[in-house]
Structures are given as C-alpha cells and as structure tokens.
C-alpha cells in the first residue's frame, strides 16, 4: 500500500530531479542515500558483457575485467554481480563444472597460464572498494535453443549423470530440480565457491523451472511421495535449493550474503489475495518459485525482483510492484533491492516510455522515496557502455553516494541531511583499497585527518558541490546513523518499538529503533527523541559510551572526580557524568581551549567525526 507521505516525497524527488537538484547544497533529495546498495549485473552467457570475445588470452580477459570494474566504480556502483556459472559451467577453476565456452570459446578449455577470472575479479573489485558477488544460474545446462547435449564437454556432469538432465520443449537442457543428485551438485558448487574465493555474496537469478510442461513425471513418481500434487512438490524442490544455499552461506562463518533475483511478479491478485494488482507472468505459478515465501521464512538475505516495466505500464505497473515488494519485506530482516531494466533505455521510438533515460531516473527517484527499498541492481553492464547518456545519468545520480559496498554494512538503506548529499573527489587508498575522499573546504582544517578517515569508513559524506561543512551542527538522528555505521552495529530492518515522535517513513527510523532497543539511546522523556534537535556534546558522548559498553569495549566503572577540574562541571547532566568521566580518563575528551567541557554546546560535524575516529582507533574497532 502506498503511503501518502511516501507519495509526496516521491513527487518532491521527481520535481527535484527535473530541476537538477544536485546544485542545491543543503537539499540532497535526489542524491544517493548513504547506505544505498547499487549493483550492476555483468552477464557472461553468450559473452554478453564479458569477455569482449571468447579467448584463452589472460591479457584480454584482465583488460576486459578492469574496464568493467573501473567504469562501475566511476559510475558510483558499489557492487558487481559477476556471472560465474551461466550454464552448468564455470568462469573459475572448478572440480565440478567445466570451463565455460563463453569464456574461452570451447567448453572445458581453460584460460592460458592458469588465469582465473573469478579470483582476478574479486581482488580487483576489492581494490576499488567494490563488492563482488558470484552470480550463478542453478538449473540451466544449455542456453541456446536446440543446443544438443553433444556440445557438452566429456567431463560435464550432465554427461556423467544423464538421468539428472531434461531436454525441454524449448530445446534447452535443464537440471531436474527434483533429483536429489542435482540438489547436492548445486549445493556442492556453491560450497566450492564459498570455500575457495573471497566473494561478498552468492546470487541466483530467475531461471527455475522453465514452465509447467517440464518433463519430470518419472522423478515425481520416484521422489514425490507425501506431496498432494506435482505443483507442491516442485515448489518444495526450488525451496530446498534456496534453503541449501542459504545454509551454506550462513554456515561458512564468512561475511557473505545470499540473495535471489526472481521475476518481478510473485503472483497476481486474481490468483491469490496476497498477490499484486497485476496481470503478468507469475513466478509462483509458472516457475514454481515461492519468492514471497522465501522472504517471509527468512531463507534469503535480500530479494531483488526484476521489475523491468515502466511507471504506468497497465498490466505490471512499476510503482505498484515496488510497493508490493516493499510491503512484503516489511517486518523481516530481508533487504529489498530492485532489479532495474537499464537495457531498455534509449528506445528509438520517441513515444516509448523508454525513449532516452528519463524512465530510469523516475524509477530511482521512486525507489529512494520508499523506506523499505535498500537499493537496486541494474541489468546489465553493457547498457552503460552502449548508452553514454545512461552512463552520465547514473554517474550523476550516484556521485553523491559512498563508493564502498553496502550489502553487508549496517545501515538504514536511506540517509538524511548529514549523510548524504554528496562526496568530494575520490582516490584509491592503496592500503585499504577503499575510496579516500577529499573535500573542498577541509584542507588545513584541524579535523581534516579525522574527516578523511571516517569518510573512508562510510560514516560521513559531503555535499554535491564537494564541500563538507565541518563547522555545521549535527542533528541527533543523524548522529545515530553515523555511530551505527562507523561502529559496525547492526540495524534491524523492520524494527519496531521506536520513539513516539519518529515517523515510520523517516530515513533514520530503523537505525534509531535498533539503537533504542539496544539501550544506546534513551530519549528525552515521555518516550520522545527530538530527532531534528542539535546534538549536544554530552549527548554525543553518552550515546558513544553506551555503544562501547554494549560492544564490551568499555567498563562502566569510572572516576567522576576527573571532571572536577572543569569549571563548568555543574552543567553536566546526570546521564552524561559516567560517559564524560570515561572519555576524559581515556583522553578522548580534553576540554576546549578555555578549559571547559561545554557539555550543552551543539556538536559540530568536525567535533563529532573527531570523537568517532579517536574512539574507533583507541578501542580497536577496526580489528
């Protein structure tokens, strides 16, 4: 259901985009939210995006990879989805699947000199501050129509186990999802990637059962006992695959996420009252993929529905579907990223909604007005190389955002006045591989080092003109976003139980609700927080202190007498005595030039960042 506040916000965004709001210093309405996830799919099936031509030459393969990653970073993406298994094959060294013909030209033929595209992509992406997600197609064996099994390499698992494969009416070969051996093979394939490569995520797309006419009667007879129908058995098979992969990723002990990018429509409301007000193809009915159920049962970290239709398209309207998916993830821990049809832009027909690039611009504006949308993934990379106007649009819309990845960061998926109007110039920090940030107004400032350091962590950002405004005050709510991000504290999506003066669609709602539940913030009385009020120095320190205690980094035993040497000691509120005492003892706080604590003075952006950086380094939060 569309909320009135969100609709008004969307209208404001759309107007702001039309008026080129990037020139407005303090109104970052069209800027990329601070923790927005911005991914791009790099398709390798039929060599669509990579490589530029099938080859065994590692120099060409490296060159093509670096061009893609450099351009992705330049456009402001923070994650790349690299298709590593387009058709029961591999663009990495695998003991289970043959090298892909889309990589080298002949299935089973490896690149020269031991070159491994996935290993190279992971390292190069991380050097550029990008996440690298391994994207695979679970069930497709052949991608071309009428491609016979004779094209498969001698060691292909479909040759070794022909009983696992089905040739469908469309002429393609598919794994039979109901075969236990297939389920094990897919699981083992993901385990192989997770164990051998430092990927940031495992990602599967929308190719499940091709349709209801799939020839699996024999498998149903063998394994379908206990299911009332083949439909329910098929749904259980796809869910088993998804659950297996989720369990492998979760059980790896690594900081990896697992997600699915299904067809944009789960089911129409004419099929089930829980469905969307649409009339298009249904994943639940035609692909036997209960994508809504996977979200509700929490067996994915994120869902990225491919909503490849325009705003106003009658049978599958974009905003209707975004709203439906946003409602679906509400109250869960599953993030929502929208799959965007970048490939449709640039239509030559001036009457087409996809003429030019305005449709994508409108869609991103709508996304950013929806509190439960945490980002997007664009299909596919080649669209940006082929369409300079699209490249420029995305670069302009994303220049305001942080360059580091967002999928595994704590954050709200949105941002506000502090966060996030824009960045200054960027360069790569050779030590961290993270984009370092310079601002037009911080050179020579006493807090310049801390500002640069915390901006690298993604805790603070600047404004569209490249400034940082270090002497501006900080709002109470914005400090919570900064604190949670820099300290790496979890923000629970769908969190409830917030303060009574916090609107549900506020950009800081989830972060503040999580901080309240953890005891980091206690409010100002009467269950209120006063989010837009200036942050005082003592409240900044009190919230920071509670976070450190929560993390087990700081003991609560302090010596309040250390404050007696400050002439304004009496101004320190009771709740701030312990925090100020602890930080004075730790030399985090040394007082002003005049020897005052100034506890009631509004904290500036420079002061706030300096405290966060001192705490981050002194307490080893980056270790």
How are the secondary structure elements laid out?
Elements: H1 4-18, E1 37-42, H2 58-74, E2 79-85, H3 101-104, H4 117-127, E3 131-136, H5 157-160, E4 165-167, E5 173-175, H6 180-196, E6 201-204, H7 217-223, H8 230-251, E7 257-260, H9 283-287, H10 291-296, E8 302-303, H11 318-329, E9 335-340, H12 358-368, E10 375-378, H13 382-386, H14 388-398, E11 425-428, E12 435-438, H15 448-456, H16 476-487, H17 509-518, H18 537-550, H19 574-585, H20 605-618
Parallel strand pairs: 1-2, 1-10, 2-3, 3-6, 6-7, 7-8, 8-9, 9-10
Antiparallel strand pairs: 4-5, 11-12
Helix pairs in contact: 1-12, 2-4, 6-8, 15-20, 16-18, 18-19
Polypeptide structure, described:
The strands form three sheets. An eight-stranded parallel beta barrel has the order 1-2-3-6-7-8-9-10, surrounded by six helices. Strands 4-5 form a two-stranded antiparallel ribbon. The chain folds into two domains: 36-398, Glycosidases (TIM Barrel, Alpha-Beta Barrel); 425-618, no CATH class. With 623 residues, it is an alpha/beta fold. It is elongated and about 85 Å long. A hairpin with a 6-residue loop joins strand 11 (425-428) and strand 12 (435-438). The chain starts with a helix and ends in a 5-residue tail after the last helix. Helix 15 crosses helix 20 (605-618). The model is unreliable at 1-30 and 400-436 (pLDDT under 50). Helix content is 35%, strand content 9%.
